[in-house]
Amino acid sequence: MGAAAEQSKLKGIHVLVVEDSPIQLTMLVRFLRKEGMTTDTATNGAEALALLEQRLPDIIISDVRMPEMDGFSLCANVKRDERLRGVPLILLTTLSEPEDLVRGLAAGADSYALKPYDEEDLLERIGHLLQHPEEDLSAKLLEKTPISFHGQIFEVYTDISRALHFLVTTYENTIRQNKALQDAEIELKENAFRLKVQNRELAKGEQRFRSLIDMVPDIIYLLDKEGNILYLNKAISQLGYRQDELIGVHIEQLLEFDEAWRAETGDEADAARAGEREVRLLEKRRSEERIATIEPLGDEWLEWKDATGRRYRIPGSAAVRDVTSSKRMAHELQRTESSMAAAQRIAHLGEWHWDIASDSVNYSEELYNILGVEPGSIGGDIEGFMSLAHHHDLAAMDEALQLALSDPMGRYDHEYRIVRPDGEERVVHALGEVSFDEQLRPLHLIGTLHDVTERVRASEEIQRLNTTLEVRVRQRTDQLTRANESLKQNMQELKVAQRSMIQSEKMSALGTLTAGVAHEMNNPLMGIVNYAQRNVTHEKSKHALERALEEINRLVDIVRGMRTFSHPPQEKLTTVDLPQVLQNALQLMATTLRHRKVEVLSEAEQALPEIAGKGDSLEQVFINLLMNAADAMEGHEQRRIEVVMRRQGEREVRVEVRDNGDGMNEELLLRIFDDRIGTLHLPQHH
């Protein structure tokens, strides 16, 4: 039956695969699914029985050697269960033990396949078991017959047809193995025949070889019984000699033999090691030390003594190969390998090679160092390697591995943690590539393992430091922002203070000027007043003089106020009439207020108490308040200032000054009495 026809019949079949090796389980499941079948998987017999409780498959394929419950026990449990015994079961075994066959028969297995299984043979067995289901096995599987095999008694089911089918399967496997052996024997005979043919051809070509010997790059020599040179090919020119220049000369003139060529016994036991020993080639000019190996071309060996009586044994004919360059290359390669090994140790970089078919893994020395184990202590399979992975990372590691094995274009690139036997955790980065055969089955996975623990720790530390630095930068930025805001505020306050100082300087200069003007005006005014008072009795000029006297008295009051304003502040407190102080201030500012079109309304309660204070200072306060109010109303059409005085308590007077200007903002209003804004000297008593 063709493979395509078999596949079409098996399409949609549901198979339960029981295998403890993840790799072999993956490969078998992939093969079955490629043939159109669906699968459930278990890693031992106990898991398989649990799955069988949930769903019955069409057929079961189980490995024999498994932990917890092996394939024989699983098979026996299935065949004892009335609900399950009708499901065909194929055992996968290597038949490493002869009794495996009998144990499978005793367990009630329907068939078995040899590992590694042949895919077409496995498909045929599945198709045969599904096309020829057993009839009612209830009675047959309840009866057993004891049989003896290799001194052991096995209980075997009495179902003859099942036993015959199982034995026929065994016979088919035996025939297949015998055929493989016969094919190998035939191939061996064919190889032996080809070898004989080649030997005959070699004899025929000996003459041709002699004619071509001069073309060989190795030095070919032939000696007589005394060790003198009879023949040299043209390769001797490599040492600076002509082809006939050394004919008749003893071989010692061309080759220098060391202790390894000494003949300690009379036999030729040492001759078998000729290819392992070296000689020195003696150049004509002796400009360079050159090393060669000797390959005997015949069975004749010569023996001679040197001047000291030491005996040497050498081939009578041989090919001398100059290995100076290869020795240098080998030395360089060894040095390179040592450097690579040192580089791996320094970089914490190990190598590994996984042969997937045989599930064998080779590790470099540095990889063992990374894992913290002794060489060979973790076994030679992938399971030993994965056993050191951190249990939290094992699932992701296996997922990355399966993904690499299923994608010919992909690669294995994964970072995970390992736990060394001493409990230390390390972080490693695995990088590898998978090679596939023509059927896209994975063959090899070759890769490296890099210990990146220090890099990861350094990265985490850098991240922590960056976070700390960011916090500190934000804190420092906040501090600088607040300091900058405070500086701006101080600068603003400084500007205000500077304007206040300039205004104070102006007022001081104005006070000095006012004192001088008042002094110069006072004497003439007093004279005018006296003159007007003496002549006020004349009827003709009485009215005019009275009017002039009123204006002169008002001017005198202004001068008196200017003199008071310009005098230094009073040091002692006196009784002050607050409404009168306000009037004095208004008289001084009358011209300014009139010029700036400012209307001043004053209101005072009757019988306000007199307070103890400094009249000139309070007058200055009123002037400042009026000037500030006038300044605040610049740009307004109506400019009005209201000054209200009311009793507050027995000895206090409350003074309110209001204007219709824009006023101060809330921030400045809250800080109006801050000493950094300006100082307003108020009397200590009201």
Short recap of the structure:
The protein has 686 residues and is an alpha+beta fold. It is built from 18 helices and 25 strands.
Can you put this structure into words, describing what you see?
By secondary structure, this protein is of the alpha+beta class. The chain is 46% helix and 21% strand. The chain contains 18 helices and 25 strands. A hairpin with a 5-residue loop joins strand 18 (412-419) and strand 19 (425-436). Helix 13 (453-534) runs antiparallel to helix 14 (539-566). The model is unreliable at 135-142, 265-271 and 678-686 (pLDDT under 50).
What's the SSE blueprint?
Elements: H1 3-10, E1 14-18, H2 22-34, E2 38-42, H3 45-54, E3 59-63, H4 71-80, E4 89-93, H5 99-107, E5 111-114, H6 119-131, E6 144-149, E7 152-157, H7 160-204, H8 206-212, E8 219-223, E9 229-232, E10 255-256, E11 278-281, E12 290-296, E13 301-305, E14 311-315, E15 317-322, H9 324-347, E16 349-355, E17 360-363, H10 365-371, H11 382-386, H12 394-406, E18 412-419, E19 425-436, E20 442-451, H13 453-534, H14 539-566, E21 574-576, H15 578-588, H16 590-595, E22 599-604, E23 611-613, H17 615-632, E24 640-648, E25 652-659, H18 666-670
Parallel strand pairs: 1-2, 1-3, 3-4, 4-5, 22-24
Antiparallel strand pairs: 6-7, 8-9, 8-15, 10-11, 11-12, 12-15, 13-14, 16-17, 16-20, 18-19, 19-20, 21-23, 24-25
Helix pairs in contact: 1-6, 3-4, 4-5, 13-14, 14-15, 15-17
Shape: elongated
How many helical elements?
18
Q: State the major sheet.
A: 6 strands, antiparallel
SS class:
alpha+beta
**Helicity level:** 40-55%
Poorly predicted sequence stretches spanning 5 or more consecutive residues: 135-142, 265-271, 678-686
Biggest sheet: strand arrangement: 9-8-15-12-11-10
Strand content: 15-25%
Rounded Rg: 60 Å
Distance between the termini: 127 Å
Mean pLDDT comes to 78
Q: In total, how many beta strands?
A: 25
